[in-house]
Amino acid sequence: MTEIAAHPVGHHDHGFVKRYLWSTDHKVIAMQYLFTGMLMALIGGFAVYVFRMQLAFPGQSVPLFGRVSAGQYNSLVTMHGTIMIFWVAMPVLLAAFGNFLIPLMLGCDDMVFPKVNRLSYQIFLLSAVVLVASFVVPGGAFGGAWTAYPPLSANAVYNLTRYGATVWVVAVALEFVAFLLGGINFVTTAMNSRAPGMRMFDVPMVVWMIVIASILFMASVGPLLAGAAMLFFDQVLGTGFYDPATGGDPILWQHLFWFFGHPEVYVVLLPAMGIVAEIIPVFSRKKLFGYRTIVYTAIATGVISFFVWAHHQFVAGIDPRMASLFTITTLIISVPIAEMLFVYIATLYGGSITLTTPMLWALSFVAEFLLGGVTGIFLGAAGADIYLHDTYFVLAHFHYTFFPIAIIGAFAGITFWFPKMFGRMMDERLGKIHFWVTIIAFNFIFIPLFMTGAAGDHRRIFDYSGFPDLATPGLQRLRIIATMGLVSLLAVQPVFFFNFIRSMVRGRIAGANPWRANTLEWSAPSPPPHGNFAELPEVYRGPYEYSTEDREEDFWPQHVPDDSPAPAPLASVVGWR
Amino acid sequence: MEVPTGRLAIWWVLASETVVFGGLLGSYIMMRLRHGAWADQAANTNTWAGAFNTLVLLTSSLSAVLAHQAAERADGPKAARLLRYTILGGGVFLVVKAFEWTHEITEGFTITSSLFWSFYYTAAGLHAAHVVAGMVIMFIVSLTAARNEELHRVENIGIYWHFVDVVWIFLFPLLYIAK
After folding, report:
1. Which of A27, A214, A369, B32 could be disulfide-bonded to A404 (CB atoms 3.0-4.6 Å)?
2. pLDDT of residue A20
3. pTM for the complete prediction?
4. Superfamily of A28-523 according to CATH
5. Burial class (CB within 10 angstroms; exposed 0-12, middle 13-18, buried 19+) of A339
């Protein structure tokens, strides 16, 4: 931490609380989001372990938990979904990377509203505490599924978790407020705090993606916040917004929820796409193919994502004419996403590819997300969806999109920027072991579930023994394979945590630019001190000038002036050579 | 051309607020169109009280504009004084609202009476919460403005206050006039 003392801003050592808990430094806040997200991932991961064990071995005592009751099963499923989306994917992809990368990549010293940033994390932390506390309220955590459809969510007679349901609504609403504050900060910073010389199309792709995602979030979450207030009143005061008996409409919630819920997919997808877009050029030593195409495509995706929500409601009794309309928009949105994946593959073409751990994660993102996208075509078409709706096929499709986003994307980002975050390299061998086991195990979970789903296996069933058509040995075998896949996936995660912690204290010193990358964060010391740059950088070119002809070096950092001779090779340890 | 950071952030706040109220009012309008009978419930709202409040709220925006003008001329104390008139306007609005609601509740029209009243109290209540928040923030801004500090905040809180006005301009016809 000598850099801190050496920094001209001259911040004093404030002590632990001031420096790590009450800090307004964007990097500290990023770490707070990252570690909170990882902690929540452990809770979400434990929940899925328990209910998958129940599905594979119904009625038997689950190690570390005991016998699972139907009510507990509902709570665990609900909390797994809620936590993984709102308390893992969002804080890690959007908030942790957004906070860490935006000021560093734009070449400024901090967010434009550091105190709002701190408040954003504090509200987020509060929301996490409130959510976790719902496990111990009478009746247990909310058991009405993460989509919280009324009347199940509105009426304790159905969800059996009167207090858990209300706590859930409050926690989710708080979490949204935290991300609204964070998003406003991100967008404003990106608009107003770029380094001198950095034009709109010199902004690194991940920053574009996080900004577009933040705008999508801001534009879509409002109706759901209003909807959450209505749900809260239905639960607590006994109003009937979603109750047909009083003239209300349960479908209204579905509209409000999915009007947010579908853009939300892209709110988390785009940052992951951006992370991958940063990694692929670095390890192919090639310019990112079609920079502007990606930007326009991402914007198009964002706009179209507001017109696809009812594809979640094909069987909810919506007008069939509306269903065909939403089928068309849904199939259209696969075009820009496919285009982005093709552009990434085009970036790889002819590059000198190095298969480092972050690159492996980035490539597997492309491969696995592709499977998620392709299976989505079946569900986006109303005709096929009527058969597949509420089966494990939907669940497997969903996880083939969200696992690449929230887990693969996050690991890609963490392994890539770890040297910048902590100034040390992660261990490549452990990283690769962790990568391969995770990816193989992941496919072992969800390929069997595609098969059970296509065979008609219904979700939301606690114990199949009461359903002779579904309790066949063949289907049960697939369920057991999926559960074994999950157990292997969870079992290998300690390797990552071990690698993470050991590298933090004992990894090889990384130097400022271990990957020989171009973007501005690599021109700051690792880890960057408070204030980030000794001297705020200026920008002379786009972020992806790799293997430029007539240059000795195969990279050309954004902050290096044109007329100067090629930069001397950085005296950094290059871990992947 | 770069918009000052504070003002830019306020616009983004308003964008996200717009969709909050948009979702609520959109739901209300869709349901209202399906339930003609709500007109009988709406007949019990006090249009004159609503009209008076509209007048009060819009007038309070005038002093917010004048405060902005004073701040532009670097006259902080005057801006602070004018902002406090706006706060007063907000206070009158809330008092009228309190009398209205008390009357309606004693008449038996509570938030659970019917879906119309659920929307009425939820929408007006959410708006009132924004009025209260605006008043608190405006008071804080007036404290710094009185010392001639952070004068750009005067404009920013003014923009927010105009938004609160605009929301009311939608609420008033939807909840009071449409009968």
Report:
1. A369
2. 81
3. 0.93
4. Cytochrome c oxidase-like, subunit I domain (1.20.210.10)
5. middle
